[in-house]
Design a protein that fits this description.
Length: 438
């Protein structure tokens, strides 16, 4: 009976989001209430579960996601992303433009939200393709594969960060393992796959080009990289320190404290207000107004994550999650594959990587305690599944299609295949790491 209720709930969620076009947050709430009622809960109990689920997941995430949006805004508005991109393209040379753009996308993709990174990179890709007479898809798709991987695998992006909380994983370890899995996924889905696209001569639409800043208006390269990557540096250093320094000391305490995600993000944003704002001639008030706009831009993402938390809590309180976890154990299917498969199915059905990942978390979270699988690897397996075969129900599909002026068939041949490679290679990488990480 639990399976029937869950499957019916997921189907209804898919219909509401993709068919009815109902807001994802409202869809989560409707489905959560109906699942609770179907399992015999009363409205008061369901309301308590919904409120607890929203509060639990957002309590630890709002600060990280909000600060991440602010940092992305600082990096974008200051021209730091453009400085990093220009410097890497210049450093790699014309023969290695594909690799230069991949590294650029990976570097700026960690601190920037996906949509921001996309609209920053694509005009650069189009201008470079025009300047060097190269197919835009050939040099652009590898860069966008790097953006996709950072979006699906790596904190502080919303979905991976929320999964860390849902699975009670260590954020620093997840980031380190995510970087290890990300590299081969990007290489195979990016430059290697792009070798088959050398003769792809679709001409991008000129109207998508944007005006770039003059060289003297951009912040310095060192300043840009250090500010954009400061959270990664602090969090990664803290994770390594935990593993290397076993004895307690003042140094260890300070490093771990600075690497605590909220602290690391707050320090970075404060640093960025000066290095990418005040030092560039902007007033604190002007920068603050811009940061406020950044938070407005990701407000619906926060609501969607809260809705997924509500569904997860209802599944937990009704006992559905535990019943399904117990039955999956008897099927002798590895939890990592279960997480990837469910996430992939929901992704293909709904289109949203965030919805796919967070819905899966509510279903498979009990498997972690019962199977002993590493929570960080569960985060990565779920994230990899959430990137599977992007198609017509994913806004990213249409962004790529329109920016690069492709036909429907060409977009499937390029974008959808790239996303599939990213997802499958990610799963393989997670299983390989499972032999070494406990």
């Amino acid at each position: 009976m639990s399976y029937i209720i869950l499957i019916a709930g997921i189907i209804l969620l898919i219909v509401l989001i993709t068919g009815v076009k109902l807001n994802a947050f409202l869809s989560f709430l409707v489905v959560s209430i109906l699942i609770g009622l179907a399992h015999g809960q009363d409205i008061i109990s369901i309301s308590t579960s919904v409120q607890k689920g929203i509060g639990d997941i957002l309590g630890s995430l709002v600060a990280i996601i909000g600060l991440g949006a602010m940092l992305g805004k600082l990096v974008a508005d200051s021209g730091a992303a453009e400085r990093i991109a220009n410097g890497l393209v210049k450093g790699f040379g014309r023969k290695n433009l594909v690799w230069a753009l991949v590294v650029t996308a990976f570097v700026i993709g960690i601190p920037l939200f996906y949509n921001v990174g996309f609209v920053l990179l694509v005009p650069l890709i189009i201008s470079i393709a025009s300047r060097y007479k190269l197919p835009a898809v050939y040099i652009g798709l590898p860069a966008l594969s790097a953006l996709s991987v950072t979006h699906g695998y790596l904190p502080p992006h919303p979905s991976p960060t929320a999964l860390v909380q849902q699975f009670h994983a260590d954020l620093g370890q997840t980031l380190l393992l995510g970087l290890i899995v990300a590299v081969p996924a990007i290489i195979l889905a990016g430059p290697v796959f792009a070798m088959t696209l050398r003769n792809f001569n679709a001409k991008p639409i000129d109207t998508f080009a944007v005006k770039h800043k003059q060289e003297n208006e951009l912040p310095g390269m060192f300043n840009s990289i250090i500010t954009a990557f400061l959270p990664v540096i602090l969090i990664t250093t803290a994770a390594i320190t935990k593993s290397v320094l076993h004895e307690e000391s003042m140094l260890k305490t300070i490093i771990i404290s600075l690497g605590e995600p909220v602290t690391a993000m707050l320090l970075t944003v404060i640093t960025g207000i000066y290095t990418l704002g005040v030092r560039q001639g902007r007033t604190v008030n002007d920068v603050s107004n811009s940061l406020g706009d950044a938070v407005k831009d990701i407000s619906m993402i926060i609501f969607v994550i809260g809705g997924a938390g509500a569904l997860k809590q209802v599944l937990t309180d009704t006992g559905i999650s535990n019943q399904i976890a117990s039955s999956l154990q008897t099927m002798n299917v590895h939890p990592l594959f279960v997480a990837w498969s469910i996430s992939a199915i929901i992704r293909v059905s709904v289109g949203s990587a965030t919805v796919a990942g967070l819905t899966t978390a509510g279903i498979v979270a009990p498997l972690i305690a019962s199977s002993g699988v590493n929570p960080s690897l569960m985060v990565l397996a779920t994230g990899a599944g959430s990137l599977m075969f992007s198609h017509v129900n994913d806004p990213g599909f249409w962004l790529f299609k329109e920016y690069f002026n492709l036909s429907f068939k060409q977009t499937i041949r390029t974008w959808s295949f790239m996303e599939t490679i990213v997802s499958v290679v990610g799963l393989i990488g997670v299983f390989m790491l499972n032999y070494f990480v406990k």
